[in-house]
Amino acid sequence: MSAALMLCGSAFARQWNFTKWSASTIATLKASDTYWTNDEKGDGTTNVVPNDACVWNVNSTIATACDADSNLLAADGTIIPELEGLKWAGINVKKVAIAFDYQITTDANKWGPYNGPAYLWLNGKTTAVHFIIPKVAPGTMVKMGVETHKLPAENPEARGVDIYVGDTKLTMTPTSYPTAMAEYTWTVPEDYTDSVDLDVRPSNGCHLYYISVDEGDVVINTEDVKVAYLYDGTYNGTKDADKNPAGWLANGGLEKDGVLVGALSGFNTTTIDYSALTMTSAELNDSLLNFDVVVLSEAVSSGNTYAKGIVEIINKVPILNLKSYMYKSGVWSMGSGANPSPKATTITVSEDYLDDELFDGVDMDEGVVTLYTPEDYDAVLGNMVQGCTLNAEGAFGSDEIIATVPTGETGEESYAAIHTHGTRNKYMLIPLSSDNYNAMGGDAYLLISNAVKMLYKTKSSVQTAGTPTVTEDHGDNTTTVTLASTAVDAKIYYALGDSEFSLYSEPFVVTTDSTLVRAYAIAFGYEDSDTASVYVRVLSQASAPVIVLGEYEGYTEITL
């Protein structure tokens, strides 16, 4: 196999996802009362989780809880596949729990709600319960989604995990334990001469949502990277050059498409023609989550139902979008697309990104990269490099701009070009018009190929947004209600009683006792949360006592 088909560098070679336990795993865990139980305290009443939404292991030693290779067992001889490869080094009764649908405990503390209902719960501290990630190479980065278990809203306790190599504790970023779910990273020092075992130890009861191990120098065949390339085979209408002399079809369609035949040639690419589909947009989106990277061609109308629907899976699967006009109002409503004038063939890379891996091997002159190389610029019809504007208040409004495209006769003005959004299942825009995909240059091929590789490395599990918390601030015959979710940049929708849901923007006042408040959260990269349903109390403040003084011979009588 040629070296051109190999992806060298960082890739998530090992991943564990604790947010999606399979139906067979759940069934085995629920059926195994000699290995797992839903009765945390063991008294049959204190904390028995309904429907086995969370189960605790009941074995006191590694020998009884694990197989000979230290894999945790769901039942006698049955390995838990979602945990396979993690070697348990310390365990005891009720020190490991697996949550399937469990955000708030049933004890008097009312801890929670948590970031999501499914996770791995380390119900102890230090070496009371810990596991090994074996044989990790020097230079490897480890990432974990970590959350404290003690999460009462009024007094959360910071808890998390540490990673040791022998007795040496690795540096953690951020440096303090979390009070809400956050991603933490550790890097194995380069000065180790061989692979090492990483010992993961909790500071106290905490949750793990995922673990990813970036193996640094692992070489992966790009033919194993599953890419979906989305386009509309009828885009630009006719191939008749007299009627439509500029456009994707007129310039050769898919056969001359530089994105497909150039940039994506080394990947395991599946082409998906919107014009040939009969499924719903939701069905297509579900199928796209099975790919490693989704590439949206510019050869599609921004009004296409399927292309419009892609916004629903941003940050749920890595996406490279080549069409900036998806941003316009009524489509994705993120801003607008833009065509530079005169036509642009170059982008200018922001100074902070000149050495970014996105531009590895790409030829640039003082930050300027040429992406289209037509034989006769003046004869070119249609567009080449495009741009965009971003709504400051929109989801992409705070994204850093990686590159711009010049516009205006002097080229001193510019539009935003390349930007990314999110860190897990990252989204990226590179706005390249399909009008002249046949005239793309080699650096455009390399840029897109680099982008797909970068995005592939961010492929991660999809979490469920945290169910909104409903906080009540009681006054006299009024209660102010505040809603919040742990999901990043979440939008919360709420309803009073049986009314329609509305977007939550600020605390609101309720004046009727036992008003039902319903709320759910949505966010890029998350499944929609469960709906919180809370009956809000409205209380009357007792009148202040009236003090009456009565003067009598030799004393004063006070009446309340």
User: Count of DSSP helices?
Assistant: 6
The helix/strand class is mainly beta
Overall strand count: 40
Helix percent band? under 10%
Give the N-terminus to C-terminus distance in angstroms: 94 Å
| Gyration radius, rounded | 29 Å
Quaternary: single chain
Low-pLDDT regions = 1-12
Largest sheet: 8 strands, antiparallel
Tell the overall outline. Answer: globular
Strand content: 25-35%
Averaging pLDDT over every residue, what do you get? 87
How is the topology of this model organized?
Elements: E1 6-8, E2 12-17, H1 23-31, E3 36-37, E4 54-57, H2 62-65, E5 73-75, E6 78-79, E7 87-90, E8 96-99, E9 119-122, E10 130-136, E11 141-148, E12 161-165, E13 168-169, E14 182-187, E15 196-202, E16 206-214, E17 219-221, E18 226-231, H3 258-263, E19 268-273, H4 281-288, E20 293-296, H5 305-309, E21 319-321, E22 335-338, E23 346-349, E24 368-370, E25 387-390, E26 403-407, E27 413-416, E28 419-421, E29 427-429, H6 442-456, E30 463-464, E31 469-474, E32 479-484, E33 491-496, E34 502-503, E35 508-510, E36 515-522, E37 526-527, E38 532-536, E39 548-552, E40 555-559
Parallel strand pairs: 18-19, 18-20, 20-21, 21-29, 30-37
Antiparallel strand pairs: 1-17, 2-16, 3-4, 4-8, 5-6, 7-10, 8-9, 9-16, 10-15, 11-14, 11-16, 12-13, 12-15, 22-25, 23-24, 23-26, 26-27, 28-29, 31-32, 32-35, 33-34, 33-36, 36-38, 39-40
